[in-house]
Amino acid sequence: MAALIRIVLGSVLWAGLLTAAQAHPLAPALLWVQQTAPAQYDVEWRMSPQAAARAQLTPVFPLDCERVSATPEALESGLLIRRWSLQCRRELGGRPLRVEGLVHSPINVVLRLQRMQGQEIQALLDAGRDTFTVPEDAAGTRAAGQVFLAYLRLGVEHLLSGLDHLLFVLGLLLLARRGRALLLTITAFTFGHSLTLGLAVLGVVRVNAAVTELLIALSIVCLALAVVRDRGGGAGWGTRRPWALAGGFGLLHGLGFAGALARIGVPGDAIPLSLTGFNLGIELGQLALVAVALGSVRVWRALASVRVPEAMLRGACAYLIGSVAACWVYERLAVLIV
């Protein structure tokens, strides 16, 4: 109970510094173009409010494409969405599509173009590539490797840009520090989030984003408490079986990953490929984080002139992680209540 009180007090102190902190502030935008006639297209532009505040991005189509109808921008499921129709003089095949403002932005844009015949084009635009030339024929619309790599990259970036997931993985490292216990714990977390991610994408499980994000924040607080109890010589359930705690909370984090994937959509004819790439990207990001954390600890031990007791260092890290997560609990609970 004393540890929980310290975390709550710490979260109040951190709240002033973290009021603008978001778990995933740079979620990718989505440009979805659907061909409805030989030279007519319906367009949907999705972007998170946080990303919209960071960058002014505008899809740019060929000059002969005229906007014939549009709906006002609306906030739907936490996303800013604009829809309009285009009438072009000829098809978009062989012509460039561009996102203005992307060159100076840290945000990615997922481009999906659905042809009348059913084929779908998939591309990922970023600061290094703000323009995409639409293939002229159906044979060039689908490159499995490009789809896989696009979602692989999105998975890596989602894990590494999501502070909540990063703190949870770091908490697992504090709880199961080395050897077989660490391997089992990371494997259990992987299995847990992979399971619910797949079930959610396939429609077996429905995701309530607000509730899921609140539970993810609570899971980080619980993990921090388990680390504190372990440091104090406690014999809690999480301390004895860190792999079970990681697997159980991994189910929650998988729903969070699924919510992120739902924002950009998954090609209907490439669900297994997209899901595999996204999930593998998450694993690569997770392994990179573990490698950097363990490497940093080794370097610090080799070079540090002042030896800080390991238990003290682990406790300080646990209180910091728990306090930040508690701030998110307040914020996300307020969203549900309001």
Please provide a written account of the structure.
By secondary structure, the chain is an alpha+beta fold. The protein folds into 2 domains: 2-24 and 162-337; 29-143, Immunoglobulin-like (Sandwich). It has helices spanning 2-18, 49-54, 144-161, 163-175, 179-201, 209-231, 237-240, 242-264, 271-303, 310-337; strands spanning 29-37, 40-47, 58-60, 66-76, 79-87, 96-100, 109-114, 120-125, 131-133. It has a 6-stranded mixed sheet with strand order 4-5-2-1-7-8. A hairpin with a 5-residue loop joins strand 7 (109-114) and strand 8. Helix 3 crosses helix 9, helix 4 (163-175) packs parallel to helix 6 (209-231) and helix 4 (163-175) packs antiparallel against helix 10 (310-337). The chain starts with a helix and ends with a helix.
Q: Notable features of this structure?
A:
338 residues; alpha+beta; Immunoglobulin-like; 2 domains; six-stranded mixed β-sheet; three-stranded antiparallel β-sheet; 9 strands; 56% helix; elongated
Fold topology:
Layout: H1 2-18, E1 29-37, E2 40-47, H2 49-54, E3 58-60, E4 66-76, E5 79-87, E6 96-100, E7 109-114, E8 120-125, E9 131-133, H3 144-161, H4 163-175, H5 179-201, H6 209-231, H7 237-240, H8 242-264, H9 271-303, H10 310-337
Parallel strand pairs: 1-7
Antiparallel strand pairs: 1-2, 2-5, 3-6, 4-5, 6-9, 7-8
| Tally of individual helices | 10
Number of strands: 9
Structural class assignment: alpha+beta
Provide the residue-averaged pLDDT.
80
What count of structural domains? 2
Q: Uncertain runs with pLDDT below 50, 5 residues or more?
A: 7-21
Radius of gyration: 22 Å
What share of the residues does DSSP label as strand, in percent? Answer: 15-25%
Instruction: Give the overall shape.
Output: elongated
Distance between the termini: 29 Å
| Helix/strand order | HEEHEEEEEEEHHHHHHHH
